[in-house]
Amino acid sequence: MNNYFGIGIDADLCLDFHNAREENPNQFNSRLRNKGYYVKMGLRKIVGRKAVKDLQKELRLEVDGKIVELPPVDGIIILNILSWGSGANPWGPDKDDQFSTPNHYDGMLEVVGVTGVVHLGQIQSGIRTAMRIAQGGHIKIHLNTDMPVQVDGEPWIQSPGDVVVLKSALKATMLKKNKLKMKRRNTEPTMMVAGSAAPPLSLALPPSVGEVGVAGEGAEGDGGTNNTDF
Fold first, then answer.
1. φ and ψ at 83, to 5 degrees?
2. 77 Cβ contact partners less than 8 Å away, ≥ 6 residues apart
3. pTM for this structure?
4. CATH level 2 (architecture), domain 4-166
């Protein structure tokens, strides 16, 4: 996981969208049309039977070794950055509460909850924030049943078992600009004298980019207990 991990209603919507796009890829050819399909699928979830409901009864959340009591929610989102769903901020602005101000390098993850499709739409519109649940560096979720999940927009059905999100898997090696300024080369033309040696060719190669730390990969299971790390 690099950005966010979702379980419940948001992952269910993401999975429906993914399956529909796989069946008819030509119909998903613009950002505006894709958002329209998302709205249409969300409305179907509102008027139809919910595939995910009362998530707090189907899983157990553990943050830094402590069990966290969940409020009534239909979805949980774990954030590594304060941007989700095309730029929305589920965590919201600073408040006078027990949580610290998040940043990108504190090694902490933020856990928030959503109550349904309408709540998701309000977060996307910026008129409401998600329910703040917890902060921590090591998050473990025990699933009692098959559950839709998604990591950075990639959805699947996760079989029962433990899902672990590790802060050690969130580090990435990035390129850094060299502070030393390159000397300006002489741009004046020079004449080559017959018999003289040509100057050596110097190539400056960029430093190699390290691999982004991602641990674990989800897939449909056979219903047995399994452990998945992100």
1. -145, 125
2. 4, 5, 6, 7, 10, 84, 90, 111, 112, 113, 114, 130
3. 0.70
4. Sandwich (2.60)
Query: In Å, what is the CA distance from 178 to each residue of 175, 181, 202, 207?
Result: 9, 8, 18, 10
Q: How many CB atoms lie within 10 A of CB 96?
A: 5
**pLDDT of 173:** 67
What pLDDT does 158 receive? 95
Cα distance between residue 202 and residue 214, in whole Å: 36
Compute the distance between CA of residue 178 and CA of residue 160 in angstroms, rounded to an integer.
Answer: 48
For 100-106, the CB contacts below 8 A with 24+ separation are 100/135, 102/135
Beta bridge partners of 75: 8, 114
Span 174-214, pLDDT tens digits: 677 776 655 555 555 555 555 555 454 444 444 443 333 33
CB under 8 Å to 189, separation ≥6 — which residues?
Answer: none
Top-confidence residue, 37 or 188: 37
Quote the distance between the C-alpha of residue 94 and its chain's center: 21
How far is Cα 230 from Cα 213, in angstroms, rounded to an integer?
9
Which helix (H) or strand (E) segment is 4 a member of?
A: strand 4-8
Distance between CA atoms of 102 and 95, rounded to whole angstroms?
12
Rounded to whole angstroms, what are the CA distances from 163 to 46, 119, 139, 185? 28, 25, 8, 56
Could you tell me the two tokens for 37?
């399909």
The pLDDT tens digits of the residues spanning 143-167 come to 999 999 999 989 999 999 999 987 6
